[in-house]
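fyi for ur records
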Amino acid sequence: MQKAVPARLAGTSMTTLSIGLSVALSAAATTAHADPQRIDYWRTEASHTEVSAQQEAIDRFNRAQSHWHVEMSRLPAGSYTEAVTAAALAGDLPCVLYIDQPVAPNFAWSGFLRPLDDLIAPETLAPLLETAKATYNGKVYAAGQNEEVLVLYGRRSVIEAHGIRIATLDAPWGQTEFLAALETLKQSGDFLYPLDIQAGWTGDEWYSYAFGPWLLSFGADQIDRDSYLEAEGVLNGGAAEAWGEFFQGLFEAGYVDRNPSDNRGFDQGRVALNYVGSWELRNHLAAWGDDLVVMPVPDFGHGPLIGGGSWQLGISTQCNAPEGAAEFVEFLLQPEEIAETSKARITVPSHPQAAALTEDFREGGRWRFFYDYAEAHARLRPATPGYPTISSAFERATRDIRDGRDVLTALDEAVDAIERDIADNRGYGFHE
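which gave:
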């Protein structure tokens, strides 16, 4: 029996149907073999190891599916934020941006970034370390594969030879024991300056990242984080002044060089202790091998706190394929991908399952200390669009304190700069 022709095709010749079917099949074949849509990704220049590891991850994503093709561009680190801002104003942002975590709230407030909560599965974001997510006003705008962890590096042989206790995560040094250790090392005559805290670094966010947590441990902060509207009484109160007096005292006592000629003093044996991040682990291992010991920073009253938040991935508001960008970011945030990055670069994984997939950071692993420390004691810098001004004002004050300026005067000026910026920008979206 001949099938009835559907009513919508009634009166259509078989020749016309054949041509239409041929066109449809041809279009389907073209779609099936169409080139994948390009997803542009911008990141900063970095070491060959870091860039190579990321390119390998991009290649794995591009091979794993056929809809999207990610292309990475590397921009100079020193002008990266300015380049992103210029591109945003010109309407020329890429789909995916590599972002330093504390800058993400400013990018979000400026309208450069989409919230990841709307694009990435909750089960992908939830397990990440809290410091591996950049938030603003309750939404996540960037997330990262790894965390950098600040520690005190030392040499077991040196510490034990001078009768000093090796600090642990469960029993860190307090302020008194820390100063006593520095005095012992200074008086030994073995070290002109027993401690390196990278005091000579400039313009790279070091002062806020490194010493903001010490301020927190003293019981102060760079801004009132309940409102994000004022710094008065927080950055220049009694606890902040005590932190400043302590910090200034490190230089006055000759424990730290105000202007070190380089940052290789620890590897060359010229200093006994080095306060720096996990990114130096590879160099320190090469210098000292099994003699290397990793310790928490001192507890100044509110825990052995360290800075958190490293470089992370965000999706721009100018992206014409946000679903593709989200698929790429979600791919990189899978435990297996995070573990691969960690193995290639010796970076601290941001996901507990990723840590379990690595030899060094799994439970019982040689460098598990770093993961546990980040999870327990890392603190994000203030999550406000005003953070660049906060960081700049805090660095200026801290450098002035280092160089002998009156502590309270330096902190008062920082407070004035921060609150003036907040007023000029109408509270950055925060309201009383």
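The domain at 37-147+309-368 is CATH 3.40.190.10 (D-Maltodextrin-Binding Protein; domain 2). thats all i got for now
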